[in-house]
TrEMBL record, chains A, B:
Belongs to the NADH dehydrogenase family. The lineage of its organism: Bacteria, Pseudomonadati, Pseudomonadota, Gammaproteobacteria, Lysobacterales. This is NADH:ubiquinone reductase (non-electrogenic). Gene3D superfamilies: 3.50.50.100. GO terms for molecular function: NADH dehydrogenase (quinone) (non-electrogenic) activity. Keywords: FAD, Flavoprotein, Membrane, NAD, Oxidoreductase, Transit peptide, Transmembrane, Transmembrane helix. It catalyses: a quinone + NADH + H(+) = a quinol + NAD(+).
Length: 426, 426
């Protein structure tokens, strides 16, 4: 029903931090914007591990893109998946066959899990990128304790109570720390045949230390905090095999029914649709203004973009994605005004990672915090940045409750969680 | 790890209102109790329609059975499905092969949807009994508006915006009223190509009036309130066919992509495992003390029990299920003490149904309320009865927010909601 529109058309693919921030920054620009996402919601990814570990409900950390953008009249939100790009004809084709003609295109479709050439591990070691991933992991964690409770064979029971998280970056640290808390505190006294506190939670990092993007002193503190929570931290040893029965660490096979993958990310496959140079992780190497070389009308931002600054890569974190998104909006405005787009410059305000109740590390370039103070800082920052006023209140109430009671309210198994599912349905 | 235990073993199948209330009422009885449920949570079913219509998150209205019962040391909670009963050997067999030997058995596995011999309608007209049902309905409702927005063909668009709820009982009334509110208010201004307020919401009841279990004056008021919310109420006409493209009402075919089923329930198939007389809906006809004739050690309670009182059936509502559950606990205690179990007597305190924002009907035997006052009464009663202190607070905050803003926070499409799903995946 939209009439022919003379305004330049900006197509933005992906409603994550980069895409959404670009969209918002084009609010009063003389363009019309189409924001395409495969999902109907923007996701506050930094809290995804809380949904996976039953501390928050899925809707607590997500908001419908349409709702966020309802007042921005130059935007149309489109639920759809881009399956083809034709830079010559300047069209992006959706899965339903519709071709969107663009004047400017922003690809901000993010990243997905990478199994380093072992895609066969995906079924036995799920990763955490979407709300559906989080609910699948939640279901698996909760069912593992149920299976252990119902099981008479000691070896099988031990395998159900053996949890491994592969990858010692922020997501792996969060998952392992929270999982240890669940076993030690949340589930205490709820079972009759097992003691959940006997569960073994292992965090496995192939490199020499956890949280490698932090200063070494904070990595040490993070490890110490993890161990205090009951996590066994293994560094310097790669996982060499994963199947339904367990995993191989170096030479030793560990019987474990629950392995979570937090070790690798690869750029969204959308980058491959461009004829542009990509790095090892599949990210598109962009020009200083974030456009694609030889295609000044195409931009890439967020986890899909490979950007070097001062000899180091700009990290794949939310603040960088937001800054890139906002920059692309500025670049498009500059082009429209006949000016040259400025170069992107990442402002690094610091680095935070949470570990568990009252445990976190914060690196503010010079100011390093760990423990309870770092945790309060992390909490304040994350609640502040949560999109949507309502979500912030709810998340705070949930957290206050969880903190006071050690309880996690979302311990509901959803999605074909019936007990008749085969025991090997992992 | 439990040692041989001389206490009589009570097996309770189903953790709904009947099973959970029976379990709790056996807290200090000289028995050990095993509570078996296919799901890990007790569900506050009266608010399930709020999850289906994106007003509440799934965990808001559910609590893990283990958590509710963690302090009751004579109970073991077992995630599992009963697939066989042997009243002679007094065993209940689970899907994983384990046979639970009981001294007393309570079957409280509730009800499921019934399509009156048209099971082929199930895929195109989902019903609402579990959290997974609610999330599937939520997904379907939200996707319908997305499909309409993306669609160029006026007929197809109209079919996506045509919603029908079959069945004018409390669930049908709640779904239709809330759906009309979503279209008229919640989604206002969020779409660019469609006006959600143009959506057609029809409530279809084959009998002469909606809410047939209420006095006629309240049925009239309910109908009037529904119509004021924008629902088209059709009574006295049965739906005679449903498929992926629409439904047949009398002789006319209506192109509609979303049909919800709230017309019929049938007792859980577990009742058929007993060699006992059952009514037309499959409910087990029980003796006055709720035991199964010829099997004084087997009880049936809740929606699975067919109980007559003063010539009328006891209704399938939460208060009746709770009372039956508590009664069965009393009956078991009486038997253990060598006394005769008393007869069950249902105390009917009244009947409530909600319709939408500030719209409800309440029948307290003599005192009849409708409109805003009835709605406040309904809200207070439901929040009061919600299990778990935390859930009550969260639900209240959610409602306060929803009321103030007309917004529904859980409008998140989960579960393979990617746009590449075929358009006919309904």
């Amino acid at each position: 029903m939209t009439e022919p529109d003379a305004r330049p058309h900006v197509v933005i693919v992906g409603g994550g931090f980069a895409g959404l921030w670009a969209t918002r920054a084009l609010a009063d620009a003389p363009v019309r914007v189409t924001l395409v996402d495969r999902r109907n919601h923007h996701l506050f990814q930094p809290l995804l591990y809380q949904v996976a570990t039953a501390g928050l409900s899925a809707p607590d950390i997500a908001a419908p893109l349409r709702h966020i953008l309802r007042k921005q009249r130059n935007v149309e939100v489109r639920l759809g998946e881009v399956v083809g790009l034709d830079p010559g004809a300047r069209t992006a084709t959706l899965a339903d066959g519709e071709a969107l003609r663009y004047d400017y295109l922003l690809l901000a479709s993010g990243a997905t899990h990478a199994y380093f050439g072992h895609d066969e591990w995906a079924g036995d070691a799920p990763g955490l990128k979407t709300l559906d991933d989080a609910l699948a992991i939640r279901r698996r964690l909760l069912l593992a304790f149920e299976r252990a409770e119902a099981c008479d064979d000691p070896d099988e029971r031990a395998a159900w109570l053996n949890f491994a998280v592969v990858g010692g970056g922020p997501t792996g640290v969060e998952l392992a720390g929270t999982l240890a808390e669940i076993a030690r505190h949340t589930l205490r006294r709820e079972f009759r045949n097992i003691d959940p506190a006997q569960a073994r939670v292992r965090l496995i990092e192939a490199g020499p230390r956890v949280l490698a993007s932090f200063p070494e002193s904070l990595s040490r503190k993070a490890r110490w905090q993890l161990e205090r929570l009951g996590v066994e931290v293994v560094t310097g040893t790669p996982v060499t095999a994963i199947d339904a029965h367990g995993y191989r660490l170096g030479e030793a096979f560990e019987a474990a029914r629950t392995v979570l993958w937090a070790a690798g990310v690869a750029a969204s496959p959308l980058g491959a649709l461009l004829e542009a140079e990509r790095d090892r992780a599949g990210r598109v190497r962009v020009a200083p203004d974030l456009s694609v070389p030889h295609h000044p009308e195409i931009f890439v931002a967020g986890d899909l973009a490979s950007v070097q600054q001062d000899g180091k890569p700009v990290p794949g974190v939310a603040p960088a994605a937001k800054q890139m998104g906002a920059h692309v909006a500025r670049a498009i405005r500059a082009r429209l005004a006949g000016r040259t787009a400025p170069a992107f410059r990442y402002r690094d305000y610091g680095n935070l990672a949470t570990i568990g109740r009252m445990a976190a590390v914060v690196d503010l370039h010079g100011l390093k915090l760990s423990g309870a103070l770092a945790w309060w800082f992390w909490l304040a920052a994350h609640v502040f940045f949560l999109i949507g006023f309502r979500n912030r209140i709810i998340v705070l109430v949930n957290w206050a409750w969880a903190y006071w009671s050690y309880q996690r309210h979302a311990r509901i198994i959803l999605g074909g969680a019936d007990a008749e599912a085969p025991r090997d349905d992992r």
